[in-house]
Structures are given as structure tokens and as C-alpha cells.
Design brief:
By secondary structure, the protein is mainly alpha-helical. The chain has 3 domains: 3-93, P-loop containing nucleotide triphosphate hydrolases (Rossmann fold); 103-179, Helicase, Ruva Protein, domain 3, CATH 1.10.8; 181-248, Arc Repressor Mutant, subunit A, CATH 1.10.10. It starts with a strand and ends in a 7-residue tail after the last helix. Helices cover 48% and strands 8% of the residues. It contains 12 helices and 8 strands. InterPro entries: AAA_lid_NorR, Homeodomain-like_sf, HTH_Fis, P-loop_NTPase, Sigma_54_int, Sigma_54_int_dom_CS.
């Protein structure tokens, strides 16, 4: 974010400008600002107040001309009250706030958003034209999407792995699996589990297909599936215990 000078730490073989410098005379987007720890928030506050940045290991301040946009899916005011976000940084950022309603309050946007995400990811994966069936549209519209656009995007990416013939059908939308929290996902399912035997098999196949798509790169697989690397490791271990051959 702030850059560093050559020799600032082991491996710093050359100077590197930070994101603020790279955004000079432009706009810098700070996504999910509430995930930033308090120490980093203090450094960010100083940069915003002084309009200058000092690289790690550097001795001079670099003047900045950068517009900053910060986003969060949490209530910043409540984060301040809980001591999770600095109040002074909150007021520094809160110059022109825009509150966007959740998908649950914008049902008419769900299908168009899903179609946009399908087109984008299908193009990135060279899948050609992929459409939504009427049943898939209906299923998307009826769900409340507590995870908003990120959850919708995860469901779309899974659907592109499962769908055939360029058509995403209702059965390709793994919405029930997507709504489980990571804690729930790490609990070993029993015979009465909501996942059920059939859904577990589908989940295993999705993981195997994604491993092949990402050439076995675990980090990329976790990101594409919308789970943490730790959860992915757990799932792969359980798959091996179930006798499923998992690529190294």
C-alpha cells in the first residue's frame, strides 16, 4: 500500500512504489476497509491527513494527489462503536457516503447481475455463450442472498463448472452448499446432514473439477470456490479418507 525502498527488508532487491503512488492523479479503491487492522488504519489516517506517503525504509515524503474510495459490506458506524474501526478514520473517509441496498431488497437486479457474471466468467474461461434456464432464473430470484454479490458470484462460478451445453439449469446452482458458513462446512456431515450423500458427491466433483481447472493450485482453487485454504485442506483430507483420489 505504501511501497518500500531497496534494502528495506530481506528480498527487497529494488525499490517498489506502493498503491498510493501508483494511483497518483487518479483514484485508489480500498475494498473491505473494515478488514484492515487498527495499526494499518493509523498509517492510512496519516496518509489521508497529510496527503503524503513515506515508503518503508525511506526517508522522504512523497506528495500525493489521489482520490480514495473505501468500501465495506459492514456498518462502519457500528464497527466504530465496537472498537474495530478508528473513529477519526471513519470521519476522514465519510465525506460522501453511499449506501447500497442488499440484494434481498433488490430482487429485480438478481438475474441481470447473474447474467453479467456468467458472461464475464464464461469469457475468461473461453466457454462461449452460456445462458440461464427459466428454472435457474426462478431459483436465483427466490433466494435472499445474505452474502450479496460475492455469494452470487461464487454460485455462478460453481454453476459454470457443472453446466453442460451452454445452459445453466436449476440443478447447477449450488445455493444450499453456498450458504453454509465455513464453520459449518468444517463439521463432518452425518447421515442426517443437510448436505446429504448426493450433495456431498456433487461437492467432491466440484472440488476435483476446480483442481483440474486451476492446475492443482490450492490457493486458486480456494478463491474460486469461495472458501479459505484451511477449509479446502480439510475437505481434501476428508475426500482422501473416503477413498477419493485427489491430485497432488
Amino acid at each position: 500500500l505504501f511501497g518500500y525502498e531497496k534494502g528495506a527488508f530481506t528480498g527487497a532487491v529494488q525499490a517498489c512504489p506502493g498503491k498510493f503512488e501508483q494511483a497518483q492523479s487518479g483514484t485508489l479503491l480500498l475494498d473491505e476497509i473494515t478488514e484492515m487492522d487498527l495499526a494499518l488504519q493509523a498509517k492510512l489516517l496519516r496518509v489521508l491527513q497529510e496527503r503524503e506517503v513515506e515508503r518503508l525504509g525511506g526517508r522522504k515524503n512523497i506528495k500525493l494527489d489521489v482520490r480514495v474510495i473505501a468500501t465495506s459490506n459492514r456498518d462502519l458506524r457500528k464497527a466504530v462503536e465496537r472498537g474495530e474501526f478508528r473513529e477519526d478514520l471513519y470521519y476522514r473517509l465519510n465525506v460522501f457516503p453511499i449506501t447500497w441496498r442488499p440484494l434481498s431488497e433488490r430482487p429485480g437486479d438478481i438475474v441481470p447481475l447473474a447474467e453479467h457474471l456468467i458472461s464475464r466468467h464464461a469469457a475468461n474461461q473461453n466457454l462461449g455463450t452460456v445462458k440461464l434456464s427459466a428454472a435457474a432464473r426462478n431459483k436465483l430470484s427466490q433466494y435472499t442472498w445474505p452474502g450479496n454479490v460475492r455469494e452470487l458470484e461464487n454460485v455462478v462460478q460453481r454453476a459454470l463448472i457443472l453446466c453442460e451445453g451452454g445452459l445453466v439449469d436449476s440443478g447447477d446452482l449450488m445455493i444450499d452448499m453456498a450458504v453454509h458458513s465455513e464453520m459449518e462446512m468444517q463439521v463432518e456431515p452425518d447421515d442426517n446432514s443437510k448436505l446429504g450423500s448426493e450433495l456431498r458427491q456433487q461437492e467432491h466433483q466440484i472440488i476435483l473439477d476446480t483442481l483440474a481447472l486451476c492446475n492443482g493450485k490450492r490457493k486458486d482453487v480456494a478463491e474460486k470456490l469461495g472458501i479459505s485454504p484451511r477449509t479446502l485442506r480439510y475437505k481434501l483430507a476428508r475426500m482422501r479418507e473416503d477413498g477419493i483420489e485427489v491430485p497432488a
